[in-house]
Amino acid sequence: MALRTAGIHHITAFASDPQANVDFYAGVLGLRLVKKTVNFDAPEVYHLYFGNENGSPGTIITFFPFPGARRGRVGGGQVGYTTFVVPPGSLGFWESRLKEHGVSVSSATRFAETFLQFADNEGMRLELVEREEGPNSGWSFGGVPAEMAIKGFGGAVLYSTNAAQTTGALEHALGLSKVGEENGYARFRATGDRGNVIDVPLRDMEWGRGGAGTVHHIAWRAKDFDEHAEWRTQVGTRGYEVTPILDRQYFNAVYFREGGGILFEIATDPPGFARDERPEELGERLMLPDWYEPQRETIEANLLPIRVRSVEVKAE
Asked: What domains are there in the chain, each with its CATH number?
């Protein structure tokens, strides 16, 4: 029987200013910085993870903030919009909060849902949608009460250079179900209750350009290590070139690029972010894998200092 993913595990993007990145995602959006580590391939750069109180799969947005990085261009072969889900009745709170922090907002409608759309400080495209399904966040910070807090991902809008290839990958490689077409979009649904709704414009899009403000990859959930190995086999039998299984400390990962140009990852739910920090202390200390621990002093000296802080409302 073919495997079906529960939905998005995490989304990873590029940024250029680490403190501004923390200020936006923790200070403005109220997410928890659940892990502060480094890019394992470039330890002079942070890898920052934001999510709910535990950094649960389906809530995690991560960034590589390269100081001084060029600005990217959103386009084909990328996640076009990263969709966060909020509790019913909270969009008014979020519209007011974003405007108070100087963030321009607009609204869009797809499949009878209203989306509040905006961009982060680097131009990355985000949107909020109200849905009942999925647990509420238990995290409250910086003026965002838990009852209004972002619950995790609602899903994503995928910009493809070959929409037929991308929709085929969603259905046949990942096991999402197509639930409809409307106004030039196709909608797909995964089996879980968050990070589970994917919309794809049905027109082929021009290639984007990677850089600050763009998504590097989108990762899908595997429930455990055994299933993860099965996922690698399933993806390979569909004709995709898939990497070996890689240990990312907080999950195992495999990667492949689907035919529309988007880099997909499949990541395990375990072991999670509490493997090397107590749950109440997540994100407070720079965590390094064992092979970088002897270089800690040098690595820390090369990283810009960052801290989680409340962000003041911008004056009118």
From this structure: 8-302 (3.10.180.10)
Q: Could you tell me if 61 and 50 are in contact, meaning their C-beta atoms sit under 8 angstroms apart?
A: yes
CB 152 within 8 A of CB 46: no
User: pLDDT tens digits, residue range 118-158?
Assistant: 999 999 999 999 999 999 999 999 999 999 999 999 999 99
Distance CA 104, CA 117 (A): 9
Nearby residues of 52 by Cβ (< 8 Å), 6 or more positions away: 31, 32, 59, 137, 138, 139, 149, 150, 151, 152
CA gap 295, 32 in Å, rounded: 27
Q: What is the pLDDT of residues 63-116, one digit of tens each?
A: 999 999 999 999 999 999 999 999 999 999 999 999 999 999 999 999 999 999
- Residue 308: both structure tokens together: 């989680």
Query: Taken in order 258, 262, 263, 269, is the CA torsion positive or negative?
Result: negative
